[in-house]
Design a protein that fits this description.
The chain has 244 residues and is an alpha+beta fold. The protein has helices at residues 24-27, 64-74, 126-133, 144-148, 199-202, 204-210, 213-228, and strands at residues 8-13, 18-23, 94-96, 102-104, 114-115, 124-125, 151-157, 163-169. It is 23% helix and 15% strand.
């Protein structure tokens, strides 16, 4: 069996010229983000005790709307929620990297929005904390990449204008050359497959935002029928038993 064998489901969308393709193996798994609970980070060595997760690098913003949304919600954060809140409202929170892409500013080699262990307001993403305390979705506060990972969406348009949209797990290669240098990546480690629900259930909001209500409904129908039929899912490669 190939090491990274996955099962997929695909269906056409009657409302547009698009086919949806979902990574069933990952979505049926019990992956769960373990930020602050054993995550070893994305640096070149084990940095579990730093509690940085994948926040060691500035969040890459996908466009001006993503940037504007970030800045709008940053204004709502208080110093009690945000450890590195600048003293001046004019202090830059983003900057262009060497490739000309806007990223969040770093403070002490990690994202400016990352509260460090021991901070009274709570360790972790200040935006996430602010959203939870406001009773709002963290998806609406954070940069898109921050709430999407470990899911990834890719669109391919053929010569006739038909779009194939794939929603799958985020792999090392998606980080570019730097991904190969990670000491650890969560979707490759059995340590992160400890959730009580399947990913398609636990990440309903994220999947719906990345696809559409129609696509999520059809995906759910398929996954529920699959469960009822007692079909044995292909285990995720991170937890798949290796044949001797």
């Amino acid at each position: 069996m190939p090491k990274d064998l996955h099962e997929w489901v695909s269906f056409e969308d009657p409302t547009e010229q698009r086919s949806w393709q979902f990574d069933v193996t990952f979505l049926a798994s019990n992956y769960s983000c373990i930020f602050g609970n054993g995550c070893k980070g994305v640096l070149s060595e084990d940095t579990t005790e730093w509690n940085q997760g994948c926040c060691s690098y500035g969040a890459h913003l996908i466009d001006e709307d993503d940037k504007a949304n970030l800045l709008k919600h940053a204004k709502r954060l208080t110093a009690e929620q945000w450890q590195h809140k600048p003293s001046s409202s004019k202090a830059p929170l983003t900057e262009a990297n060497d490739d000309g892409i806007d990223v969040t500013v770093l403070v002490d080699d990690a994202c400016i929005f990352l509260n460090r262990p021991g901070f009274e307001g709570g360790a972790g993403c200040a935006l996430h904390i602010g959203a939870m305390q406001a009773g709002e979705r963290f998806l609406d506060w954070k940069p898109e990449v921050c709430w999407q990972v470990p899911l990834r969406r890719e669109d391919y348009t053929d010569v006739n204008g038909w779009v194939t949209t794939t929603v799958r797990e985020w792999k090392r290669r998606d980080w570019g050359d730097g991904g190969a240098e990670f000491h650890w990546w969560c979707t490759e480690s059995k340590d992160a497959f400890i959730g009580k629900k399947a990913v398609w259930e636990s990440m309903e909001d994220e999947i719906t935002e990345m696809s559409s209500p129609f696509a999520y409904e059809k995906l759910t129908d398929y996954m529920v029928e699959r469960r009822k039929s007692k079909a044995v899912p292909l285990p995720h490669p991170a937890v798949r038993k290796k044949k001797k």
